[in-house]
Amino acid sequence: xxxxxxxxxxxxxTLWWGDSxxxxxxxxxxxxxxxxxxxxxxxxxxxxxxxxxxxxVVSDGIDEVASGEGNENTYCLGSYCSGGGYSYPTxxxxxxxxxxxxxxxxxxxxxxxxxxxxxxNCDSGYTTCGGLITLWDFGSMSTSAxxxxxxxxxxxxKIPTVTVVYPACTNQSACRYGINLxxxxxxxxxxxxxxxxxxxTRLGTxxxxxxxxxxxxxxxxxxCDGTKEVPNLIICTSCKGSGQIQHSACSGNGYxxxxxxxxxxxxxxxxxxxxxxxxHGDNISQYHK
Length: 289
Fold this sequence. Notes:
0% of the residues lie in helices and 36% in strands. It has 289 residues and is mainly beta.
């Protein structure tokens, strides 16, 4: 803005421009305005990251005056980069489940032992065996006095009135699993040969528990081992009986959140980086001096 003694005079502003203080040239960029009125002069087509010198000459048509010289460096162009981000690898501490074994003191599978209580499976430390009666010693191909045995308490029982018959295998040429290996008789043991898999045939009557029946013998209680007491288990308040709690390292998600940076500019978030030869930085505003 310039002033003139005659306030009604129209003043003409002309821009002088150059790439050094001693190389200024007059341009055709002008603006007009009355004394004391501000004007704007614009220069386009400039290069990035380049210093330019300039001055303004003002004339009222008779006299003219020049401003002092000034200089400015144009901004660098910043190029956009989306930056880094996050990866989500499976948490190895919980194998991706988000849960780990409960760490509460005394917790075993979600329960804590607090003394003992009476066993509800028995009255005196003894119960009915409950094992299965099975054939123990096959003896010969056909017999009237086989031994039977309980698979739990191992009580051996004689069945004198029973005759056991082993039908011949229908595929004797391939059978090697029967009682008589040369003839291939089917038996009660259920060997791997498909033709010998069916059980024996029982004939007659018996006064004792039969094959596959439940053993009636009184034996030591399996639950309390004859002590009449069992551990008193209470639900763990930390895991609420599940035996597992949230894995704190992954906040129960089963994966970890791992940040990674833009490898070129070492920035995590979206950013602009300087593209000029002087390279003013990797995290800048879009344009800068």
